[in-house]
Amino acid sequence: MKKALLGLGVFLCIVAFWTPSFGATAYVTDSFKITLRTGPSTENKIVSLLPSGQPLEVMETEGDWSHVKVLGKGEPPPEGWVLSRYLVERLPWKKQAKTLRAENLRLKDKLNQIQKNLLELKQENSDLKKQLDDTTKAFKDVSSRYKSLRQGAADYLKLKEKYAVLKQEMEKSQSEIERLTRENNQYRYSEKKKWFALGALVLLCGLLIGIIIGRQQRKRRSYLY
Using one digit for the tens of pLDDT, what is the confidence trace for 12-36? Predict the structure, then answer.
């Protein structure tokens, strides 16, 4: 009697463990196709065969049978009865493995894309570094030229100032030369006039002397004759 009660308790525990709760989502267990029937017995008509991993909504449980809705099979979803022992609350291992393989492939593709993007970024970084080096070199060259031009401009300004001073001095010298030239011309003209007047005076004096001498000679002759 004790053994029978113990066996019944174990059976009830197993049934309680394997029986999904009402309203919960359950799955057809691994590596099975189970029958969906119109009622809770093997005498009822088979509606369809459900593959492993098919999601079901458990609406009620009656003995070894569960009344379920087949999810993802149209609207309204088909209903029927399945044996409760073929239902599990976890996703079947085969479906989990398939999902994990798909996720693994997706992650591999993502990793390959990341590696490709990383290589592209490295290449872009190398190109940008080269551009930066070229720009830095060009900037140094421009800075050096700017310093040279700035120094040349400073020298040019100094030379320009010196040229302006020399130009002013040359203009002053030119004015002085012109003034001296005019004075020299005036002096030469004045000297010519003086010499001309002196020559005319000498000539006049010579004429006067000649006239006086001629008269005296005539007087002497008149006295002689």
Answer: 444 344 444 556 676 655 557 889 9
